[in-house]
Known about the structure:
- The complex is a heterodimer.
- Chain A is built from twelve helices and seven strands.
- By secondary structure, chain A is an alpha+beta fold.
- Chain A has a four-stranded antiparallel beta sheet.
- The longest helix of chain A has about 35 residues, at about 335-365.
- Chain B has one domain.
- The chains are: A alpha+beta, B alpha+beta.
- The interface between A and B is large, with 83 and 56 residues.
Amino acid sequence: MYVAVKGGEQAIARSLALLAEARRGDPALAEIELAQIREQLRLGVARVMQEGSLYDEELAALAIRQAAGDMLEAIFLLRAYRTTLPRFGYTEPLDTDAMRVRRRVSGTFKDIPGGQVLGPTYDYTQRLLDVEAGAAEPVTPAEAALPARMPRVLDLLDAEALIERAEAGGDAEPFDLTREPLSFPADRATRLQNLARGDEGFLLGMAYSTQRGYAESHPFAGEIRMGEVDVWVCPEELGFAIEIGSIVLTECQMINQFHGGNGVPPQFTRGYGLSMGEGERKAMSMALVDRALRCDELAEPNEAPAQNQEFVLSHSDSVEASGFVQHLKLPHYVDFQAELSLLRTLNARHAAQARGEIAAADAGEAS
Amino acid sequence: MDTSPHLARAGWMSLLAQADPAELAAAMDGFAPPADAAWLRPAQTGLYMLRGRIGGSGAPFNLGEVTVTRCSVQAGGHIGHAWVRGSDPRHAELAALADAMLQDAQRHDALQAQLLAPLAAALDAKRDSASRKAAASKVEFFTVVRGE
């Protein structure tokens, strides 16, 4: 337990000054501009937005600079900032079908309508540090633009009824974790919101565990697409919907083997991942964990860590996790003193008992 | 003009929100705001919760929030509103002013020609360029037949 202590104000003030100085680094060098972070560290910005749960490139860039590049600290800063802003409402559901695609690949079909578009990816780099990186060669645009709408790869399987359908249903109002605390069992919409905010490293590890056999999922990357999606809202004042701008999203549709069960015939099932900006590793991890967490619904044995909702959803949030782990640094003096005195008492009793046993043994020998 | 005023207005409001703020500011320079322009709701930044759909087409879920700046202005007998993504108050103010002015039949055509048309062209050009660059990385995969 943490007990408040007084004092140390001056030391804290100086620590803050030291932090500011350390963050700034060599004052002879120019300070990094936010636009440079936004433009040149865009994948870091995307991660901070996604896990900070707030799409705003400028604020994410500011958070990264203030946190000196510590992504988890930047995520925390963004999460804290969002609590100071009023909530205007909910957007219309994002139409990823109408995405202006910048990258789109499938691991399941070679020839997909609209084609496979590699876009900007590290996949085909040699991963050799380029110490003499010069200016980038400008890309020569193709003659023709990509189709305005790219059909979903999974719809190709839909026609044969070999894959489960994602039905819109009654469009029930989804649970909102920013309004109400998580409780179990959590439905799929709630789980996806949790995973969307979840730490990439944690989800990556969980996703990896499903591939290594801790939850039989046999996944294929049905489709991964990245690009711009328009954001629509319908303000009460207007009574009709308008676009308010567009955002970059990465979407992953995983296809998984399913032997049938719970009244469902054998078919491919789906895992879904959606991430702000270019966040492919996150979207793929999210999709794998989403699928693993559907075990109860599909009557699959629930025995692996990645299938355990309480385990996954309770430990996915880096803000909560880092807060609880790092709070151990705070003064626990009273707690520790109590433990110490208890241990001294136990120790003394143990010594006394040992002396008593020796005395008894001595007495036994003497008799 | 469009026969459906709502549709036309939704169209220009969307365009003003999608426009690059610097381009919007430059284009609006040529149009003096009505002298009686009064802010009904000064620019205010808040949040919308982004909704995704499970599997892309299924039931909605909450993905995370997005900053949005809104603003309302009364100008020349019309009320202009703006909701724009991001936290740039000037973008929202200019979009709200343009919305009010576009509702004014006297000003509409000039604004349509000198503000909306160039903004739409710039947005189309930007999207076309990005799409053609992406298209340059389109691949044809060939499955290599294993040798017999």
